[in-house]
Amino acid sequence: MNNPLRSPDIVWRVEKRRQAEVLKALEAGEDVDDSGTVILLQSGMMHQLNLVGGLIWQQCDGQQTLAAIAAELAREFSVEQEEVESDVDEFVTDLKERGWLING
User: pLDDT confidence of 1, banded at 50, 70, 90?
Assistant: First the structure.
């Protein structure tokens, strides 16, 4: 899946205030891995994505390649792109298997 696209069956929103809190906690060196910042609703079920998952999700617009998404995350977190490429690929593959992402 080179240009992942969010499934139109998913209703979602960014919890902006929560995202700001998580970013502040991250800057303070706190563990924020389990802190949800994006809410997904599918078939009456609610799911939360953590900060990184939410940032990836927001970029899955059918226009961005996996490499472009990885590059943006690398810039956001000041790491090498190669460090995040496999994580982005793994996350997107998981969401595709769930039916939450489709080919754009």
Answer: low
- In the three-class reduction of DSSP (H, G, I as helix; E, B as strand; rest coil), residue 101 is classed as strand
Could you tell me if 11 and 39 are in contact, meaning their C-beta atoms sit under 8 angstroms apart?
Answer: no
Whose tokens are 């899955």? That residue is 60
Q: What homologous superfamily is domain 4-103 in, according to CATH?
A: Coenzyme PQQ synthesis protein D (PqqD) (1.10.10.1150)
Q: 3-state SS of 1-65?
A: CCCEEECCCCEEEECHHHHHHHHHHHHCCCCCCCCEEEEEEECCEEEEEEHHHHHHHHHCECCCC
SS3 state at 104: coil
As a whole number, mean pLDDT of residues 70-90 equals 94
**Is the distance from CB of 50 to CB of 44 less than 8 angstroms?**
no
Q: What is the pLDDT of residues 13-60, one digit of tens each?
A: 999 999 999 999 999 999 988 899 999 999 899 999 999 999 999 999
* 48 strand-pairing partners: 39
